[in-house]
UniProtKB/TrEMBL annotation:
Domain of life: Bacteria
Family: Belongs to the SufE family.
Natural source organism: Paractinoplanes atraurantiacus
Domain annotation Fe-S metabolism associated: ranges: 11-133
Protein name according to UniProt: Cysteine desulfuration protein SufE
InterPro entries: Fe-S_metab-assoc_dom
Length: 141
């Protein structure tokens, strides 16, 4: 797992429940905007497991790092927070580092005590689809 993501996981896992909710809102607010060429979600994959409209795109770079883009409406702060966590935690990560992220990432963060299982499932689907996009690009090389 990338070092930055491991630090975020540890911060959440050790934080009290009321602080966890504040931390989630901070990550939701820190979501970077989409570049103009993705504004219409062109080339992005929708994650239908999420209760809200959620789109993502992973691009493997020639140096084996991955650039990720996520889009989710501001009215869905928990789902935006998942995207913000991944955007920050995976920035500059290699394909191997991202593919090694545990599938139960959100459980390891202790989020099951703070948010609903349905939201956890959506977050897990985001990670799974991200890994699938990366795996397909690596295989196509």
């Amino acid at each position: 797992m990338p070092v930055k993501l491991a630090e975020i996981v540890d911060e959440f896992a050790s934080a009290p429940r009321d602080v966890v909710l504040e931390m989630l809102l901070e990550f939701a607010d820190s979501m970077p905007p989409l570049p103009a060429d993705l504004a219409g979600h062109d080339g992005m994959e929708q994650v239908p497991e999420c209760q809200t409209q959620f789109f993502l795109k992973a691009t493997v770079q020639p140096d084996d790092t991955v650039v990720t883009w996520f889009d989710c409406p501001p009215e869905a702060p928990t789902t935006r927070a998942f995207a913000g966590i991944l955007a920050e935690g995976l920035a500059g990560a290699t394909t191997a580092e991202i593919l090694a992220v545990p599938d139960d990432l959100y459980a390891r963060m202790g989020l099951a005590q703070a948010i609903s299982p349905l939201r956890i499932r959506g977050g897990s689907a985001i990670l799974a689809r991200l890994k699938r996009q990366i795996t397909a690009q690596v295989a196509a090389r």
